[in-house]
TrEMBL record:
Region (Disordered): 205-268, 544-614
Species of provenance: Exophiala spinifera
Name under which the protein is recorded: Uncharacterized protein
Keyword Disulfide bond belongs to the record: no
Keyword Transmembrane: yes
Keywords assigned by UniProt, alphabetized: Membrane, Transmembrane, Transmembrane helix
Biased amino acid composition, Basic and acidic residues: 253-268
Transmembrane segments: 116-135, 141-160, 316-336, 342-361
Polar residues bias: start-end ranges: 545-556, 568-582, 593-614
Length: 614
């Protein structure tokens, strides 16, 4: 026997929506991008959303094509970017060229207040649907509500495992970094704790191996196992010996570090590692600069391979449960009462819309947006965007404009900035450039040439950019682009505390006979001496690289055949044809020199020039 109110709700059915389950298939791409970027949401974390099959099918880990990551500092190019990174970048609405992202590692953030609020919101709205279906004896609606709740739990687990994988990889990177964090910081305490765990794990393995070596039917310490254990003990790096001894000492055990600002001398310390400049070209051709620790790019990198699962089997089981819950949800919602159907649609569509709009997310400016609306409509003040633009104009032009910041997981922090306004270029006279804030009313630059000048590229990095075809090729001896680029590069007044800094090539490179050159082709076209506007950018002489004819003639280097004529030289070590650069002027080898080299290559006898064939 039900109450009259709930009885009327149960019997109220002016029309039927039997195919309502198809609604759950909508918004799959939007949900994939919003959830897959792994940014935590303050209030919508435990509410149902559309496209539950996207989570169950693990589509949030599918990588996207058409992306390019250029590790300029190390000369590495890859098109394999992690799934979360591409989704996160597409959601940021970056500028064409002037977006600048600084990546740091911070102590873990405690967001228990947001978690409690999100749980209360979920309990209220999901609990009301369950109560509605029970009191009205709508058992299909009740099954639909339970399926939605299970889908929420599946999503929380799947996304939580991805974030936990990010945190675990961050721990490994900081632990294996060459330079240890300063004492009195959270990173130093956590690094010591991780080293203690590794030392105890090695001690346990060694004791187990020692027990095997003394067991009947096994070799003794003088046998195979004994020699293997001794070799592994000898292979332990000596620099960690003191740390291992201190970790294994029962007198001073290291506890799991809990982040409490009062327990650390420098609680605000952020680990930056070895700064590296990275350029990423998106599928929409936007060029975004990353200033990040080099260690984060070491394989397996969070930015290339993505996070590794800590519990892959349980991960698969939970996703299977998610598929089952989605199947029940898509059938039960079409069989439920009309009141349950309408409430369910509102309950899953509204949170999905807010999630896609990044409401209450770290990487959105929803708080300032709401404040701007309040000032505009309630207090008749300036809009937030106008106030922000005025603040940017009044701020120091040499400082970057920090737009927002967000966390991936609990420790990986991204600061989204723009290059300083003082980095803009102004043509004071024909072919004469200076740097400074742009005139009022003029828009900021969107030219790739200006971005390359901001990056403070060295000669080796310019060669890499040329090899990747990011620089234009010279046609009909037209070097206007190069001359303008060089002038902009050296007229720029840089902020010494922000981003890449220009260094002298002579000071940064030592000319030794054992150095391996950074390029396998001639440096004539990109050679700074050809477009010299500053004496500190003159190329040092690049020696011939030892490589095979397969590499030197490969089509993987299109810039070679386009404008370079490599000079073939026989190497006395491996008798392989290598490419050596021409003289400092970057000229092509003469016909006489080519004939001499060809004769030497075809004649196996020693020649007067010293070229010979083994």
């Amino acid at each position: 026997m039900t109450w009259a109110l709930w009885e009327s709700v149960h019997n109220w059915s002016p029309f039927e929506i039997d195919a309502l389950g198809l609604v759950t298939l909508l918004g799959a791409d939007e949900v994939n991008g919003a959830v897959g970027r792994l940014v935590k949401n303050a209030y919508l974390e435990y509410l149902p959303i559309l496209g539950a099959f996207v989570i169950a099918g693990n589509q949030i880990t599918n990588k996207a094509a058409g992306w390019h990551l250029y590790n300029i500092s190390q000369g590495i190019h890859t098109t394999d970017l992690s799934a979360w990174l591409t989704r996160w970048m597409l959601s940021q609405d970056f500028e064409t060229t002037r977006s600048f992202v600084i990546w740091k590692v911070t102590p873990p953030r405690s967001k228990w207040k947001d978690t409690i609020i999100a749980l209360l919101i979920s309990l209220i709205f999901n609990g009301f649907l369950i109560a509605l279906t029970i009191l009205s004896k709508d058992w299909y609606g009740f099954a639909n509500a339970l399926a939605m709740d299970i889908s929420i739990l599946v999503r929380v687990y799947v996304v939580g495992q991805q974030r936990a994988g990010v945190d675990a990889r961050i721990d490994e990177v900081v632990k294996k970094a060459k330079s240890a964090p300063p004492e009195g910081t959270y990173e130093a305490a956590r690094r010591a704790w991780l080293l203690q765990l590794d030392a105890k794990r090695r001690e346990k393995e060694q004791s187990k191996r020692k027990g095997w070596s003394h067991s009947p039917g096994q070799h003794t310490n003088g046998g195979v196992i004994g020699r293997l254990g001794a070799s592994r003990q000898d292979s332990i790096p000596p620099k960690h010996a003191e740390q291992q001894a201190r970790a294994l000492s029962p007198e001073a055990p290291i506890k799991h570090p809990r982040f409490d600002p009062s327990n650390f001398k420098d609680p605000d310390y952020e680990w930056t590692g070895t700064p590296t400049k990275v350029l990423i070209i998106q599928t929409d051709s936007k060029a975004v600069t990353f200033w990040m620790p080099q260690e984060l790019l070491f394989p397996p990198s969070l930015f290339v391979e993505g996070p590794s699962l800590l519990h892959p089997r349980m991960y698969f089981v939970i996703r299977s449960i998610g598929w089952l819950a989605f199947a029940v949800h898509i059938v039960a919602i079409g069989m439920a009462d009309l009141a349950s159907q309408l409430y369910t649609v509102v309950l899953i569509v509204l949170p999905t819309l807010l999630l896609v709009l990044k409401f209450s997310c770290d990487d959105s400016r929803w708080v300032s947006t709401l404040q701007a609306w309040a000032r505009k409509y309630l207090y008749r003040g300036l809009a937030g965007s106008e106030r922000q633009s005025l603040a940017d104009e009044n701020a120091s032009s040499s400082e970057p404009v920090t737009l927002r910041e967000c966390w991936i997981g609990s420790r990986l922090k991204a600061e989204i900035c723009e290059w300083p306004a003082s980095y803009e270029f102004i043509e004071t006279a024909p072919s004469t450039w200076s740097s400074g804030p742009p005139p009022k009313g003029r828009e900021r630059s969107t030219r790739r040439q200006d971005l390359y000048a901001w990056l403070a590229l060295s000669s080796a990095e310019e060669e890499s950019m040329d090899k990747w075809d990011l620089f234009p090729h010279i046609r009909d001896d037209n070097t206007t682009w190069w001359q303008t680029y060089k002038k902009k590069k050296y007229c720029l007044k840089r902020n010494p505390t922000f981003g890449p800094q220009l260094k002298s090539d002579k000071a940064s490179t030592a000319d030794t006979t054992d150095d391996v050159p950074t390029s396998i082709f001639q440096t004539g076209r990109t050679k700074t001496v050809n477009f010299a506007v500053h004496t500190s950018d003159i190329h040092h002489h690049v020696q011939a690289r030892k490589s095979s004819t397969v590499v030197s003639n490969s089509s993987a280097f299109p810039a070679i055949s386009d404008h370079e004529h490599p000079q073939n030289v026989l190497n006395d070590t491996d008798a392989a044809l290598t490419q050596s650069p021409t003289d400092g002027r970057g000229e092509l080898p003469s016909a006489k020199a080519s004939d001499t080299i060809s004769t030497a290559a075809s004649d196996p006898r020693p020649s007067s020039t010293g070229l010979k064939e083994d």
